[in-house]
Write a structure and sequence with these properties.
Blueprint (H helix, E strand, L loop, with lengths): L1 H15 L4 H11 L7 H15 L4 H8 L23 E4 L9 H16 L3 E6 L11 H13 L6 E4 L4 H13 L3 E4 L4 H6 L11 H11 L9 E4 L14 E5 L12 E3 L1 H11 L4 E5 L3 H13 L7 E5 L2 E3 L5 H9 L14 H7 L3 H10 L7 E3 L1 H15 L1 E3 L1 E3 L2 E4 L6 E6 L8 E6 L2 E4 L8 E4 L4 E3 L2 E4 L7 E3 L2 E2 L5 E6 L5 E6 L11 E4 L3 E8 L4 E7 L1
Parallel strand pairs: 1-2, 2-3, 8-9, 10-11, 12-25, 18-21, 23-27
Antiparallel strand pairs: 4-5, 5-6, 6-7, 13-24, 14-17, 15-16, 17-22, 18-19, 19-20, 23-24, 25-26, 26-27
Helix pairs in contact: 1-2, 1-3, 1-4, 5-14, 10-11, 14-15
The structure holds zinc ion.
């Protein structure tokens, strides 16, 4: 009993970043209904386990959890949006400075979940107005759209902020005329604003500011002037005070536009949200401040109520590289491309044989809350396994093959099912007395060749199933075996021999090498088959 309590307490703390006694209790009761008789002592046990757990490091917790499996389906919750009235319109707004990775896909999946649920519209909007640090990549627009479609997300409209500069300039002028924005040229702006003091530019009249705004397009140089939004100068958060809306980047790099005056995201985003009729936004908790900043635009331009915003906590991935880190590794030639097998991009996951449905189930299983979530890619793998296990045919592949001879082995013609549970046909083997094996064969130990016979000390024993025999896979030594290589997710390459029927596997088909792992056929050449590793 104490183990079950500990299991769910630790699981909750790792998965949701906090421990909810009621949810832990619900899970324990579901697994063990008789504990309902004594709820008081159950609560006591849970509280003791919470106390104990708090002393453990994340690593210790994960290590503990490795011993248990968890029912994944029950976590699929029915999520709701607040204040749904009329048509729901939502947007997924990536910066196309590279393709999306599993972390980005969370917002896409959640947005599309709600659009499906409320029969709403999903807009894919490229937030691509940063031409200095996170510079958009021309190819990434198409890549992202492809990945979104591959995730079976219905896109109602695709928009690109870099094609809407005229719109942003028009609204900027309107704000200047209404005295809600001004061009600031102060070098000591930060110093002043930190002290809640306004800078001299703030007091200039709209006509003067319009003149200065025009100069941003001609005379002022990089860093000499920015357009600021007037806020509450006494706002308790300095990041909200007088935030910048446009900046000058003279030599911006961009695949589609040449410009001098570039809108910042906090300006372009609320304009688009209004013009596209966005009703609900899902946003990372780290961007909570954006609401406050962007609220000023809604207020000054009479856009009405700011969209309903739901915040998600941070996902903490172990070893997941960011877009800029990947870009650097590619430039340095350390990895080959965005679908390198060691990465967490959707491109990589597709290449490895992950299914869109598995990614969606995985994302939805994390729910929608503000806690930090430690993401366990093992759970994604197990969602994927639920799908591909049924679809994948089984084959024998022996890595680092060693030849052994079994004395008195009968010559056999056998049929082995392509799948242990579903009738999908057979693979055929003709065996003599020589075999390839992967495992080290120990003296005096009883082994069973899967689907074949038992042997000990390289001598045939019998055919009957024997619980005590160690099950191993094998290949008959024959000339029709196929050379196999598998590109692993750490970029190592494993080589081996495979049964002849692997020749029938089609490109991109996922199979299971029995007793090893799932993988996907990526390349067929005259002398070998190349697979990519999916997962165990
Ligand atoms: Zn100023």
């Amino acid at each position: 009993m104490n183990d079950i309590v500990k299991k769910y307490v630790i699981y909750n703390s790792v998965r949701y970043g906090k421990i909810d006694v009621n949810s832990v209790m619900g899970k324990i009761i579901a697994e063990n209904p008789e504990v309902k008789k004594d709820i008081k002592s159950l609560i006591k046990k849970i509280n003791e386990a919470i106390k104990e757990t708090s002393k453990l490091t994340l690593e210790e917790k994960n290590k503990f959890l490795e011993n248990y499996s968890f029912e994944k389906k029950e976590e699929k919750r029915d999520l709701e949006l607040p204040n749904v009235k009329g048509k729901v319109v939502m947007r997924f707004a990536p910066n196309p400075n590279g393709p999306i990775h599993i972390g980005h896909s969370r917002q896409a999946v959640l947005n599309s979940y709600f659009c499906n649920k409320y029969n709403g519209n999903f807009i894919l909007r490229f937030d691509d107005t940063d031409s200095r640090t996170k510079i958009p990549m021309k190819e990434a627009y198409k890549w992202i759209e492809d990945d979104i479609k591959w995730l079976r997300i219905k896109i109602k409209k695709v928009a690109r902020q870099s094609s809407r500069f005229d719109v942003y300039y028009k609204y900027a002028e309107e704000l200047i005329k209404k005295n809600n924005a001004y061009v600031c040229t102060c070098k000591n702006f930060k110093e002043l604003v930190d002290k809640k003091k306004e800078c001299p530019c703030r007091k200039l009249n709209p006509d003067e500011n319009l003149k200065r705004w025009k100069l941003m397009f001609s005379k002022y140089k990089d860093g000499e002037a920015v357009l600021r939004i007037k806020t509450d100068i006494n706002h308790n958060n300095p990041a909200v005070r007088e935030w910048p809306a446009f900046r000058i980047i003279e030599k911006g790099e961009h695949p589609f536009v040449k410009a001098r005056v570039w809108p910042l995201l906090n300006f372009a985003s609320p304009i688009d949200d209004h013009e596209f009729g966005i009703t609900h936004i899902i946003r990372g908790i780290d961007l909570i401040i954006s609401d406050e900043r962007q609220g000023y635009i809604y207020k000054y331009l009479n856009f009405g109520k700011y969209p309903n915003t739901t915040y998600t906590g941070k996902l903490l991935f172990k070893d997941l590289k960011s877009t800029s880190e990947i870009k650097k590794l590619i430039n340095e030639g350390i990895i080959k491309g965005w679908d390198d097998l060691s990465l967490g991009t959707i491109m990589t996951l597709r290449r490895r044989g992950f299914k869109a449905e598995a990614i969606k189930n995985f994302i939805m299983s994390m729910g929608l809350n503000r806690n930090e979530v430690h993401v366990d890619m093992g759970i994604l793998e197990s969602f994927n396994k639920d799908i591909i296990d049924k679809e994948s045919n089984r084959y024998f592949v022996v890595f680092n093959p060693k030849k052994i001879k079994i004395e008195n082995a009968p010559e056999l013609k056998i049929k082995v099912p392509l799948h242990p549970e579903f009738e999908r046909g057979f693979r055929n083997f003709n065996t003599k007395n020589e075999f390839y094996v992967q495992d080290d064969i120990e003296k005096g130990k009883l082994y069973r060749f899967m689907h074949l016979f038992n042997f000990k000390d390289n001598k045939y024993v019998n055919k009957e199933l024997d619980k005590n025999a160690k099950l191993i896979h094998w290949l008959p030594v024959s000339s029709d075996l196929i050379d196999i290589e598998v590109l692993m997710n750490d970029n190592s390459v494993r080589k081996g021999l495979g049964e002849k029927d692997l020749g029938k596997v089609k490109l991109n088909q996922i199979v299971q090498f029995e007793r090893s792992f799932f993988c996907k056929l990526e390349k067929k050449s005259k002398d070998k088959l190349t697979f990519v590793y999916t997962h165990r």
